[in-house]
Specification:
- InterPro entries: Acyl_CoA_acyltransferase, GNAT_dom, Ribosomal_N-acetyltransferase.
- The protein contains 6 helices and 8 strands; from the N terminus they run E-E-H-H-H-E-E-E-H-E-H-E-E-H.
- By secondary structure, the chain is of the alpha+beta class.
- Strand 5, helix 4 and strand 6 form a beta-alpha-beta unit.
Length: about 220
């Protein structure tokens, strides 16, 4: 599906209107603000719309997505999935974005939010046709910086140890490997060990400080 180029409402580090920044949790009310649109110079994260349903159905038929998500959808189920994404935003439970590349749906990025703990868990997929173009790492970086801007302290990402591509995505987005959860998640071929990656708010400031220091003349 091809979409129009609506301008970004927030940058990768900008706070979304209606959210209040807090060191440990956030006090904002997403139901009183529109879900933000996040962009860099290549990808665009935007709220899902009902017209995305056919593309979602097609995406879940692709081998690369089937391998790790092991589900399929009808058009009706895809519309319900999109409606649930909007409901999760209103309930402060999650923020799920469609990821566009060149105006075409290229993936999905979701942050499951825990306001009480100030944490978020990332989940994503990308279409087979954009493999190797850095779409997932760019989308994860944008979503993570937005999460930090509203007061999230810790963002986690978990994936099968048999999926090294997701390790590369996490690394490129600034996540570190925290450990391995043995036989943690069921897949089509049995239970998989899962790598747990994390990104802390402190790490973002530290990396920014190192980058700034690196620009100084010596």
């Amino acid at each position: 599906m091809r979409t129009g180029r609506t301008p970004c409402r927030t940058g990768s580090g900008g706070a979304s209107p209606g959210w209040t920044r807090c060191p440990r949790s956030w006090l904002g009310a997403p139901s009183r603000s529109a879900q933000p649109i996040l962009c860099d110079d290549a990808v665009r994260l935007r709220p899902w719309v009902e017209a995305d349903a056919p593309s979602v159905v097609t995406a879940y038929q692709e081998p690369g997505i089937q391998r790790w998500h092991a589900r399929s959808m009808t058009t009706g189920e895809a519309k319900e999935w999109i409606t649930a994404a909007h409901s999760s935003w209103t309930a402060e439970a999650a923020s799920s974005w469609a990821v566009d590349l060149d105006g075409v749906l290229a993936g999905r990025m979701t942050l499951k939010l825990d306001p009480g703990e100030g944490t978020a868990v990332a989940a994503y997929w990308t279409r087979d046709r954009v493999s190797g173009r850095g779409v997932a790492s760019r989308a994860l970086r944008l979503a993570t910086r937005w999460a930090f801007s509203i007061g999230v302290h810790r963002v986690e990402l978990e994936h099968s140890t048999l999926n090294p591509a997701s390790c590369r995505v996490a690394d490129k987005a600034g996540f570190s490997l925290e450990g391995t959860r043995r036989e943690s998640a069921p897949h089509a071929d049995g239970r998989h060990d899962m790598h747990l990656h994390l990104h802390l708010h402190l790490h973002l400031h530290l990396h920014a400080r190192i980058d700034t220091m690196g620009t100084h003349d010596t």
